[in-house]
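Before going further, learn to read the protein records used in this course. Taken together, the tokens spell out the fold as the letters spell out the chain. A record is reproduced here so that you can trace the correspondence yourselves:

***
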Amino acid sequence: MHAENRLHPARARFLLSGATLALALALGQTPAAAQPRELPDFAELVERVGPAVVNIRTAEKVKAPEGQAEMNEQMQEFFRRFGIPVPNQRRGAPRGGTPDEDGPTRRGVGSGFILSADGYVMTNAHVVQGADEVIVTLTDKRELKAKIIGADQRSDVAVVKVEAAGLPVVKIGDSNKARVGEWVMAIGSPFGLENTVTAGIISAKQRDTGELLPLIQTDVAINPGNSGGPLVNIGRAA
């Protein structure tokens, strides 16, 4: 859904050499045409799209290999027979406690956006892959358990469902109509920071990664946790 691309512009990019200026004049560019345009204001777009962007947290129980689990049980029985305290076992801890007590849990964070008012949410497939629990946090701070409806690894897209009604939605646009150089913004939860907005341009289209379908490349700041959030242009979701 996003193709990560970090630009490191040098100061020299913004300086015109005499040769460059001569070439520009030779091509018939006038000083007026060379003047920079006013940068876009994304505030209205954020107000319209932002409420439909959600934070997604996942939990996956990590299972130990069978041989290792059997060895641990045998070792615990050995300790019990000789009255030795069992390592990593808390006194008085009830059996069959929380998921963390049953074993280590791998946790993840990502983003998503609401497709329908009745709770269908789109995200990246890798965000929810292998998850035993998916929690969707809305902008009004409600936390809802979500069910994974389906996922496609080739396009890295997944849909989850929460039980809710009257939710704000994001309108899906036609990415084929997106243009290289067009201003776009991303909304998501980088590092778990909900509804963070970054902006940039479309750097390229139809980037072939070998494993995924061709992607849109952008210089919008994308960080861990942004995965699954929408890339939006001025008029529609890209």
Notes: Residues 2-30, 89-99 have pLDDT under 50 and may be disordered. The CA atoms of residues 78 and 84 lie 8 Å apart. DSSP finds six helices and ten strands in the chain. The beta strands are 53-61, 105-114, 120-123, 133-137, 143-152, 157-162, 183-188, 196-207, 215-218, 231-233.
